[in-house]
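Reminder to self: tokens first, then the designed residues, so the page reads top to bottom the way the pipeline ran.
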């Protein structure tokens, strides 16, 4: 339940960004910020990825690290960019 609340808040935050024109996220996708340092990389992923167990593990890490206060305003995942890209590319091939 907590992960769903976190996603809902993050996606609401991203919608607010879209309404101001500062972010370009296609329908059916969401933006996530990834990185272990203060300089995080922004990725746009299909919402369908959020339900996969591999991605759920990353979301659990985000919940442990940030709770509901994501520093970037959107969903922030505290893992290496390489790991995230690897998980995302594997999900695209499924």
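Designed residues (94 positions):
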């Amino acid at each position: 339940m907590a992960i769903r609340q976190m996603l809902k808040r993050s996606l609401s935050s991203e919608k607010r960004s879209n309404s101001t024109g500062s972010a370009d996220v296609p329908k059916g996708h969401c933006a996530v910020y990834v990185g272990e340092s203060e300089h995080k990389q922004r990725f746009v992923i299909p919402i369908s990825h959020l339900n996969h167990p591999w991605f759920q593990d990353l979301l659990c890490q985000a919940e442990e690290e940030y709770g509901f206060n994501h520093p970037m305003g959107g969903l922030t995942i505290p893992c290496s960019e390489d790991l995230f890209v690897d998980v995302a590319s594997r999900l695209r091939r499924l």
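The helical segments are 2-19, 53-66, 81-93.
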